[in-house]
Amino acid sequence: MKFEHVTFDLPHGTFHALQGGDPDGQPTLVLHGFPDHPPTAMPFLAELGRRGRHVVAPWLRGYAPSPTAGPFDFAALTSDVLALIDRWSPGRAVELVGHDWGGAITFDACVTAPERIERAVTLSFPTHSRS
Q1: Quick one: average pLDDT of 63-86?
Q2: Other CB atoms within 10 Å distance of the CB of residue 9
Q3: Cis link prior to 38 (omega < 30° from 0)?
Q4: pLDDT > 70: what percent of the chain?
């Protein structure tokens, strides 16, 4: 499965991403964790593409070649993701998959703009309970 390097001009700067899969398929946005970046998820991204999804996996704020300047609070990171959704999939809700730190952003995006998210999945997100 071939993925191409694409860019999106968003309010905080030019964000880089890998894009592939079925252009007519379900838009699926994959957010990486720390210290990963999109290329480390290529086998997973390719499988999503083979299953008929149109996949985009951005380098999140703080990870070159996307903007590396802060702020890095949830409001800022979530605003990047929502701006990307608006630019990449206008008028159509996306599947949002977040790994680790991307999972935290996924949770925040679902709370902030549930109408833009059709389905969300978080992977390997650490939690703890209070005893």
Answers
A1: 96
A2: 10
A3: no
A4: 95
Q: Specify the amino acid at residue 87.
A: R
Amino acid at 43: P
H/E run at residue 49? helix 42-50
Average pLDDT, the chain: 94
Angstrom distance (rounded) from CA 45 to CA 91: 23
| pLDDT tens string 94-124 | 999 999 999 999 999 999 999 999 999 999 7
Q: How far apart are CA 101 and CA 3, in angstroms?
A: 23
CA dist 103 and 108 (Å) reads: 9
* CA gyration radius, the chain: 14
Side-by-side strand order, sheet with 117-123: 3-10, 13-21, 53-58, 26-31, 94-99, 117-123
Residue 129's Cβ-side half-sphere holds a number of Cα atoms within 13 Å equal to 1
Residue position matching structure tokens 């209070």? 130
